[in-house]
Structure formats: C-alpha cells, structure tokens
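Sat 14:20. Reprocessing the chain from the morning session after the first attempt stalled halfway. Input below, unchanged.
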Amino acid sequence: MSLQIVDVIEYVENNIVQFHMQRIEKIKTLSLKQVLKKKNPYLFKAKNLRTSDEIVKLLIEAYISSSEETMFGDWLEGLAIFINGKVYGGRKSTTKGIDLEFDKENIRYIVSIKSGPNWGNSAQIEKMKNMFDSAKKTLRTSHSTLQIACVNGCCYGQDRNPDKGSYFKFCGQTFWEFIGGDQDIYLNIIEPLGHKAKERNEEYIELYARMINKFTREFTELFCDNDGGIDWKKLVKYNSEK
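Finished this time. Tokens:
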C-alpha cells in the first residue's frame, strides 16, 4: 500500500498536542531540589557563575532540553509505527527492546527506534545487539525458517555505513523511506509538526518564566549568604553529601 500524505498530516495534527501537553505538565511538576540533585555543581563554579538566576537558567535549560529530546523521541516513534502500519501493516512489537515489527519481501524486520544517530555508548549498543539476538531466538521458536533482519532506526541524522554486521543502521531520510516506502516522508512530516505550536508555546513560555522567577528566589534563600554571595560549599553538600 502506498502512503497517503493526508493520513500523515492528519495523524501529526491530531497527536502533536500530546507532546506539547507533556512539556507543559513536565514544567508544572518540576522542583528546584529535584534538578539540583541531577546536575554538576562544580561546573557552575568552573563557568564562573555568580548569580542565582544564571545558575537556575543553566540548570533548567539543560534539564528541559534532555527531557524534551526523550519525550519527542517517543512521539516520533509513535509516528514511525503509524506510518509503517499504513504501508506494510507493521505493529508495535511486544518483544523486549524492539519497537517495531513488520514483514517486507519475505523478511521480518525488527526495529529499535532512536531519535538520532549518536544515541548510545558502546555498552548501550552492545545491549541493543543482545536484544536483537534474543528477539530473533524468540521469533524462531515458532517460525524456524523465518528470515529476520535487525534494524536500528534513527529519526534524524545520517550514517554513511549502514551495514553494521549483525544489524543495519538507517538514519534520517533513509530510515523514513525504509519504514514508509517514500523518499520524501522525512520532508513531508516537518510542516504539520508546527500545528498548534504557537499557542502551546505561549502557554509554555509563561509557565517557564514563572518557574525561573520562583526557582531563582528559592535558590537565593537556600544557597546564598546574607550578603547575596553564593555559598558554594552548602550547594555542593546538598548535591553530593552522603
């Protein structure tokens, strides 16, 4: 079946709100102490940060950037499974570590979907390979002659050497064409992603500004001395003391 771009546009416009709502809920539930426990206080000192608002902004921007990458990666995974389901009848896999399964030209493809090409270190990549091996064994218990190909699919970026031996790594345009059978999918999904973005971003920006003000006041009360200077030892103790 060929992909109808109207179906993709409709899916994106109906579901992108979920991502924006996740962003808003995340920022509503964030606490300064929660973020302080996860970030490196020595870095703040090394960067010669001197005011509460400088530290708070660096903290929050780093934390939110990381969490948004994860949230949007999960959202793109859902889009990829939707597109593949329309074209090849693919489905969300029930096998541990595998996101997508589908059949194409008498081959069962098992796919682990990541956001971008530089998603993991050597240990994480080895773990993915082990999951591929385990998934193949599971599938072959009921289909002994089944041809299986393993794919690490990345929603953006490039990899000029896709054959990794035990699996393939398809990135960006190559990945979207692989799952959807159309070399232009990676371009066609970009425009509808802006649906509702403006109004949701305005709500988000208002919440973000309030949070910065609130956390700056809280940080000053907790980690600044009476003269307004940052008590670095107190901050490090809070972050790292056993």
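The chain is about 60% helix and 10% strand.
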